[in-house]
2-hydroxyacid dehydrogenase
Amino acid sequence: MTPAQTAMLDALVPVLGRKGIVTDPAAIAPWLVDWRRRFHGAAPAILAPASTAEVAAVVAAAARHRVALVPQGGNSSMVGGATPPADGSALILSLRRMNAIRRVDAAAGLAVAEAGVILSDLHDAALAVDRRFPLTLGAKGNATIGGLVSTNAGGTQVLRFGSMRGLVAGVEVVLADGSVHDGLAPLKKDNRGYDLTQLLVGAEGTLGVVTAATLRLVPVPAALATAWAAVRDPQAALTLLRRFQAATEALESFEILPRESLAAVLAYVPSLRAPVAAEAAWHLLIEHTDPSGDALMERLLGEALADGLIVDATLAATATQAADFWRIRESISDSERALGPASQHDLSVPVDAMPRFMIEAAAACEARFPGTHASGFGHLGDGNVHFHVRAAPGTDPALWYGEHVPVVTRFVDDLVIAAGGSIAAEHGIGQMKLAELERLSSPARLTALRAVKAAMDPLGILNPGKLVALAPSAAAQ
Amino acid sequence: MTPAQTAMLDALVPVLGRKGIVTDPAAIAPWLVDWRRRFHGAAPAILAPASTAEVAAVVAAAARHRVALVPQGGNSSMVGGATPPADGSALILSLRRMNAIRRVDAAAGLAVAEAGVILSDLHDAALAVDRRFPLTLGAKGNATIGGLVSTNAGGTQVLRFGSMRGLVAGVEVVLADGSVHDGLAPLKKDNRGYDLTQLLVGAEGTLGVVTAATLRLVPVPAALATAWAAVRDPQAALTLLRRFQAATEALESFEILPRESLAAVLAYVPSLRAPVAAEAAWHLLIEHTDPSGDALMERLLGEALADGLIVDATLAATATQAADFWRIRESISDSERALGPASQHDLSVPVDAMPRFMIEAAAACEARFPGTHASGFGHLGDGNVHFHVRAAPGTDPALWYGEHVPVVTRFVDDLVIAAGGSIAAEHGIGQMKLAELERLSSPARLTALRAVKAAMDPLGILNPGKLVALAPSAAAQ
């Protein structure tokens, strides 16, 4: 522990008490490695304030002592966004003790949740008053509201109600000097200058520490229809997507996966069965909450079958069957991991460009890196897929991750930029993509990102080394 | 003209040509006064670039010569946001020649419009491909896309699809150093750091010059139902609002006005008639696009009549009748102006708090300023009303505006802040509310606004004196 860290902790003992300062290495250890176990950090202490005032005291002390803080919620970042630097220079600021749902207002369709509230707990609290918080994702049992806001999280239900950015009506945030900005009031129109709420959403804890958020709730749908369809290619899937969007505003999911992803899941999870009998190169999981329910789904899929747009389809007849369709979708990552090491890319392009991108980028990767297998799956309706390039069979994992993945990553990222897309669709930048963001951003974007960072965190104490470096990072040289 | 301005113009002649530089005082004059004729500025020239590259050249030259620019579109700001400073230190940067609609994509539901495109032209272009750009407002024949984006404009159709912030999928913007940030790609998920698009929306041209925007289009509704209802008080109106919201997601307008506003309109526009016979203290204009059309409107209003929530109601039987209802709503400002000078406030509070605020704030104003008459009208569904305090009969206008209005403004603004609201709901800050924003913002908010401004426009050349001053303004002392 540095003398500054020691002095800071000493100053915080009367504020946080014993429960609020963790220095036992065994208790700290689980929070030093990221979800995917790709990044390993060090930190001599975890600070765990229980109130906004305590967070403010922590940040003010950090500013005074020039000690960096790494805000952490459920530690489920996919890009090392919540893992402290390896040199032990930063302390972890855990928001998990701030786990109150301060208010749920069914009539107004709003909830105020503290940063440490776990997503599935918010789902439950909304359902208890007959409302729904529509955003969900695989890590819902770990991911916290503060992290979801700070990463502008996405998931499989973004199509209709948007990412977190669209669901956040306001935030309470502790700024880098320890002052508190209370932006929780749910004002539908508020033009008092730059939108600080939207600036903090997706800022990955580098501009301020989100301590609570006002979140939009939506009605619980009266009807839910879930279907599986098989198609020849992503272009046909796009055509079907547009038909659904023309027919209903209540399309909630439109997920795509290639045959080999389905096969990987069926091999990995023996209890699951292929939803349709037809052999097809691509598969779709479609869900809507249109009041007409299955009738609309049947009509649109029936028409698509009749005119040859799809080759097969089936509606989930029961909630269990629908859940099985979703288990297939949600098992892809684990199932593919069992096939060997891969370079994984969370990317987006304009929706209309995605079918062509999926085909051409996979072909380009396999041509450029012989023996590899490339394919994308995910949120076609959002123009966002998870694009995986699997190592040639027999490749040494250490060699793959150490030497090949950076090369593959640059190759894929160049394809994304050429297609007008984003190299960070829903997982953010964190530390994993920082160098690539610098390499691929226009001077205008990079200048603006750095200027905002320097303005809001002039001492560089908030999640340093994530999202944007104040000076060009060594890795980008 | 200052030597720096002369040097800058000389440098720009080869770039902009004769059409792009206006120095004739008669041609400049109309653009030196704001829409409400409350602010008068001076500028030795208008620069009118015709392309993004030309805008970039103008801003780069302004940075080089340290000459301030005032971006201007339709010049319909309600807060002096586009009026240059009175000392002639700034040049007007008109975006009106950038008026191309670059793309309209019905299938994707997107349009790319340059900053100078007039709102009603965008409406027409969308309708031509059977789509709708849902935002509209009184100044639609003048207001431009650049201004609407830069002020996060609202209007009467915000309830369902949101303000401009919710309709902007991306922006192209020239930053203060003349570099161009191309954020037009319509990526539904993009977490490449701080959201520069959202930062520019509502920034009033103080962080960059918006040159084009990608905008969301929505389907043309199959049904439209418009009704007028009379209610006893705003609380009953709120109850009715919640019933509509529970019944349909397609509620598009829920406007409220007091009896005296209706009377003022009927006196001022002789061709209009009172929609309902009943005498009631408050009136509502309700519009939805639920597919069930009039049936839903009839059912909900019938139930409300039956249980005494409303005292009278009528559905618009024809499009002409619906248009007449809207003419009443849109004639309020002009009609009330004819009654005498007023202090006008564009404010918002949480929707649930608005009924009580409307009653109590009006009573408080009339008690504090004897002889005045206070009332609010507008977007109840958005928690946003235009609150007018009319001078006591016989008050000298010069005295009223010069001495009373500032006092009334501070009084009203204090009430708004006490109610957890915003003193700038949809009209922005401009120069009119800058001092009040400084007076009423928390240190955290003000520090953040100033930091962002200084970071993005370090030379202070973009719309100086609007939104936030880099140093505390004299007026706020």
